[in-house]
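During the second year of the project, the team shifted from modelling isolated chains to modelling whole assemblies. The rationale, set out in the original proposal, was that interfaces cannot be judged from single-chain predictions alone. As a representative example for this report, we include one of the complexes processed in the last quarter. Its constituent sequences, exactly as entered into the pipeline, are reproduced here:
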Amino acid sequence: MTYEILNICGQGFYFKLDGFRLIYCCIALFMWSVSLLFSKEYFAHYSHKARYYGFLILTMFATLGVFLSADFMTMFIFFEIMSLSSYVWVAQEETEAALKAGVTYLAIAVIGGMVMLMGLFLMQSAVGTLRMDELYTAVQSVWDEKSAQIYAAGFLMLFGFGAKAGMFPLHFWLPKAHPVAPAPASALLSGILTKCGVFGILVLTAEVFVHNFIWGSVILALGVLGMVAGAVLAVFSVNLKRTLACSSVSQIGFILIGVGMQCFLGGENALAVRGTFLHMVNHSLIKLLLFNCAGVVYMNLHALELNDVRGFGRKKPFLMGCFLMGALGIGGMPLWNGYVSKTLLHESIVEYIAVLAETGGNVWLFKSIEWIFLISGGLTVAYMLKLFICLFIEEHPTKQAEYDAMTSYMSPLSRIVIGCAAVVLPLMGFFPGGTMDKMADAVMGFMRSGSMEHSVYYFTWTNLKGGLISICIGILVYVFVVRKVFVRNGKYVDLWPKWLDIEAAFTRIIFAFLKVLGAGSRVVDGFLTQWCTVEGMLKALEAVSRGADGLSERAVAYLKGTVYRETTEKSVNSFVQSLHEHYDKKVDNMRLVGSSLSFGLLLACIGLILTIVYLLMH
Amino acid sequence: MEFTLLQLTENLKIAFRADELSLIFAAITTVMWILTGIYSFGYMEHDEHKKRYAFFYILVYFVLMGLDFSANLITMYLFYELMTLTSVPLILHEMKEESVSAAMKYLYYSIAGAFMSLFGIFVLSQYAPTIDFVAGGSIVAAELSHGGLVLAGVFLMLIGFGAKAGMFPLHAWLPIAHPVAPAPASAVLSGIIAKSGVLAIIRVVFYVVGPEVLRGSWVQTAWMVLTLLTVVMGSVRAYEEKVLKKRLAYSTVSQISYILFGLSTLHPLGFVGAMLHVIFHAVAKNLLFLGAGSIIHQTGKIRVTELREIGRQMPVTLGCFGFAALSLVGIPPFSGFFSKWYLANGALASEIGGFSWAGPVVLLLSALLTAGYLFPVVVQGFLPGKEYDIKAPEKCEAGLNMTIPMVVLAVLTLLLGILSSGIIEFLTQLANSLV
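Output from the structure prediction step:
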């Protein structure tokens, strides 16, 4: 179903509603309802509420616009609105950290948008259309002659989409922006706004770079790096929401691995397509729940550091239940939703290894990717265990009684909405055939993928094995690394090396570049214009005319000097005065030399110009 | 339709004609003049010499109308010089030492530029079939004699008229003269009068010489290099500048060179982009200067660093300022995005080697810098930080006769973008008749 609005915003809007878009719009609306309803309690004591709600709604419409668009131009317009209006969420609380994170967020949004725009320019000029349903044939017809330009366009757009999606190495805004944004907003930032970026990458994969090896390898590589980097960062993190943000980076990595595998598997990529899409859905829903749970913690304690919030969840079974649902979901526990999508992604890697083995290709690279995948899954379990044990099992050394006394920590409305968000996860995980498979069936057309040869039995031993390996790794990492290394004297310590900061490196490069540009511009702006054009010429002319003007007088004075010599009284005694006169004469001489030199140069210039004019005329 | 006012000699006449281009320029000039005029009532309320200001303000408008509707090079040159002379009192208005020296600088540069152009007019009147404006140019490239001299003349005209448009190398007056004028005057100086240089260049290139003569010549290359250089230089200087009005003036330097770059592609898409940017930049820059003027008028703050929290004191003003900033950076669906879209596509479609790529890259680089020098003003104005929450500042919004024109302009920045299709269609027809 398509819908077109002509004569608006230059080229008109072009929308489409298919399985993928419908599902994602529903998810978006669900997430916004949950966040909005929870915001009521979360923001009860805040100022500037109107601003927050206004931009929340504006971003919602823009996000729906992004997901409904069937034209990159339409998409870009909504994408930019979404990108900039969500800035207000990050900076909403106006603390120093929030404003700083806001600057990072805004910079990434603007830079990402501009780079993406450059990609759109190139795509438009190479292919001649930006309509998603025309792109496939248009790209095929010009691929042979313009593949270089299409690649350039594609990677520039990947930069823009990736910046929003939190793709490595543009992920650094996530861990910075999430801890400072209000929790309902971070749930949306992480759950759905990142998916707008992934959506763009998916469209590029499905319509432009269909089964393209180079595209697939780049995305796979970035996906693996992001998956590992995010998971490691999350294990190191000692802040509740920062851990969740790093976890988002990692999960986006999982999704991108799925996208990469789609390209490698070619026509038989159904597993990868389903895994990618379901992991997107699961990640959206899980992060909605987890961030809102973190919001409950923050709402009561106004703290997020693990050392401050530990023990808050004891004797709060509702909160514990909700958080547990999210933790099990994201950890990939069988019977929860995350398990299904991770299994599919894992299976797609296994399938490609089988394909490689059949054709006699080298399998070690993908074998190692498979193990990195399982280990990252394990790290996911480890950092979720860290959070869970910290919040719900451990006791706070000093304030435990105070925390236990907080019995009315949530309003009934918040309980209902967060409860809803929590129930969905096991529901989907227990009945994957009726829920997730149906969703996945609806998106196959969107991704240009054929149907599955046979349905996947998620709970067979081979499939369970992968999930269980991850969980074992996770528990081992938690027991032997997290407890031993990151907990010292009963306190969580931040061991992340400070110099390992990608953003600082980016900023340094940008500012160095700006400095060079600035110096260059100052030279161009000041030096050349001040001295080589109007003013310079005027000064030179003035000097010349002064010389010409005074010529006769000077001649008279000179003659007068030769004919009639006045006896000047020289004060013989004053040594200083004679030195001074001497100095004056020197200065005059220098001035004379300077002005004649410039006059000479001016004449030389005029001569050059005349020569050029003469040459041009012939 | 042509109307001859005065027949000077057999070939020279002062004549007027209304074509599409004059209509666009006249329309935008009129709208801006009315809105800025209303604003002036508020801004100049307590000024000693408001009558003098009003007299010259209206006089410049008439001169601009003459310029917009002129039918040949001589008429245009006449009004071009008149415009320079009549707008000097606007810059001089405050009669401080810096405004006098700025006005003198303006005069020097403008007259120097105009004389360079005059040389070109001499050449063209000798070697072009006619100096009347003919859509698409009257010179047939194949029959052109003294091609080198004509090209040199055109180049001098580009530089000369470029002085008004703030194109390197004759741009140095602009960041000095625009900020010292009273805010409404700087608004029309930056928004409209600087565009007269663009109009003159369009008339020369597309109505007398014809794009065919220039295509592929050294003049086109040099022109592109100069515009791109100006774009980068202007935005970097604006980024470094701390006085708000000066920052806006440098921004004008860079933005008008976007327009000139679009023209220099000599491609219909580039031309459409340039004309769109003429309109959209006029709206946005007018609005920015009016906003800066309101802030000066109400609080006396001129430096960017003093503007923290200004959004809480003057929410309407800074809101409008924000709209203009979004448009100037080129965030869709604000109007500036659409002109940039056409400019970049024109550059890519014109296929002139490296420039097709370099152009869009420079445009986007400059857009980033534009974001860098305009967004912080808005962001810090509205989100000053938690420590500012303690004491709510007093509202000091300007009077209605100042805010209403700004709100109208702010609505225009958005509306012109959303409804740009009609304008684009009109301009595409015009562009196809010229190129």
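Chain A has four domains: 1-210, 236-397+404-496, 497-525, 533-555+576-618. The first helix of chain A runs from residue 19 to 42.
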